[in-house]
Amino acid sequence: MHQAAYWSLLIALFLSVIMPALCALHLWRGEDGTVRLVERGHQAALLLMTASSVILTVALVRRDFSFMYVYEYTDAALPLFYAVTAFWAGQAGSLLLWAWLAGVFAVCFASGAAYAALSPRAKLLFWLFFLAIQAFFLLLLTGPSTPFLELVPPAPGGKGLNPLLRNPGMIFHPPLLFLGYAGFSIPACLGLACRLAGERVNWIRASRNFTLLAWIFLTAGIILGGWWSYMELGWGGYWAWDPVENASLAPWLTGTAFLHTAAVETRRGALRATNVALIALTLLLCFFGTYIVRSGVIESLHAFGEGGVGQPLLVMVACFAAVAALVLSLGGQDSQAQSKPLPGLYSLPGFLVLACWLFCALAAVILIATMWPALSAIWSAKPQGLDAAFYNRVCNPMFALLAGLLAFCPWLSWKQGARSPLMLALVAVVAAGAAAVAALAFHITLPSALAGVALACAAMASISLLFIKESYARTRRGGLGAYLTHCGLALTVLGVAVSGPYQTAKEAVLAPDQTLTIGAYTVTNKGLTKENTPAMFAATATLPVEKNGRPAGELAPQRRLYRNFEQPFAEVSTVPSLGDELYATLLGFTDDGAVSVKVSVNPLVNWVWIGGTVMCLAALLCLRRFRGDER
Fold first, then answer.
1. Mean pLDDT estimate for the chain
2. 182 Cβ contact list (under 8 Å, min separation 6)
3. pTM: predicted TM-score of the whole model, two decimal places
């Protein structure tokens, strides 16, 4: 089976190389008769990748330790659902998943009305760009990062899955991220193709659903990843500004910027080159994030090892950037496309462009800070990384400013000025009132936190007023999905603004029946239970919680020691709340029942997850069918 799976990928690679070569040849000759052949070639390549993926999945389920990949990431005691998710636990499997998902997206796109409306030249260019990307992934999968190496003789057992990956988040978080990364390949390749072909079909509308789905998947993956790190790693926070986290956030920021400038092009026909550049940059950052995670250039708690793919990925990033720059310089000669001039900054298009710049500035800050250890190594013998405090100081005020744009945008005109100066004034009053309440009643006085709270509340109030005042805004065509998505972002900003700066934490060693007081909460050590299973040893502390003398729940943090792993791992416990959430980590214990614990109070943290969920669900309302006559 090893050979069958490997040769399937090798034949898929051959098809993915020969098909774009045919596209280039026919484009050079000005012919268009090979489109159908290229489509069939991609379908055949996808079937071959599917066959390889099925073989790997079956090997994982059966614990076939003759596969090196199965040996590295499973063992006999691993539950079945974690054995299946081990498919994307390793570098090779995750790359195969990405390539396969991108292939599925391409087949779905080629089956729709938007693809049918393209000219033969634009179709050939689309496949030229897309299949070149697919060929690169297949080159990695048949070269330095293949999941089908055979272990001779087969091992009697496996090493087991990394304990940090034994979490429900592992089932969904990586596939969602890869769905986002793979999904952005469709609008990026289509935008470059239409730019170079001078295509009259509106490529933004043609790829709208794929762009939105990619954005939704990436948003869901980031939010779920934040929850996973919050619950599994014991950081006490949802975001440690780790390089792996930042690698997914950067393309999300530029992808969000694109969604806003795309609205300007759709409405006024402006920013054509900007939009192609933004969507190409988004896909480029997906590739660059993959390089960060898999190159070893930056140390991270949950990055992959170098594995021989770092240098090829960097070459891929450079080549894609060069191709995108070349297309942008050569394309855009469609004389039939007329654009309306953009109004000044004090208008809805002006604020949308400002939001775009803010998103891109955030992405630039995050990327530079993430790469700072590598960059500072150029002039320093002791390169230093930047800690979470730097990101919070720089990024939190920018997120607060974004919330301010959400608050005022609904009342601005597409031409110039405000549609309703009275409503703008009312929103400003709400912002001032929210700031006063937050400062006086809840003692939120840090400037960035206060601004985040006030402007997030103003944004939600602004959208609520819009729904009350204008019935059209409550319809899908009137922007209901976009407005609700903005509400979700405002909720997330609210949670971020308060939960980080106003988190309180205490560490203590508690003997049996001893208590720890933190704020209004009292935590008591009521004993320690120990459990041995074939997979692990687990010690669980029982910590009842009281608030102002009344029962408020129970914390049960664990310390686990997995078979084949010498390092113990913490499993945190929470007492959920929409206000103050209690969060406990078991740091250690003794035989007499004493426990070393860290207890945190995280205010409003659950609004981060609620806001992220609202964003993902609301954005589904923005999906629309494409009509072939759209220009």
1. 90
2. 98, 101, 102, 104, 105, 214
3. 0.94
